[in-house]
Write a structure and sequence with these properties.
Elements: E1 9-11, E2 18-20, H1 34-41
Antiparallel strand pairs: 1-2
Length: 54
């Protein structure tokens, strides 16, 4: 079962109940939150990559 608030979180019986598809480890949040993940770690479905040549 997927989390409602993050497309990359999968329900599991390991860790605290959520696995991250990106890191293939536990979700960093007790309640998966894709916006917070993008802000804190730059990963997840809400992350944007600003690639500019400097």
């Amino acid at each position: 079962m997927k989390a409602k608030c993050c497309k990359c979180a999968i329900n599991t019986d390991k860790w605290h109940g959520w696995k991250c598809e990106i890191t293939e480890g536990p979700c960093m949040f007790l309640i998966p939150n894709s916006k917070a993940c993008a802000e804190d770690y730059g990963e997840g479905p809400d992350a944007t990559e600003d690639k500019e040549d400097v």
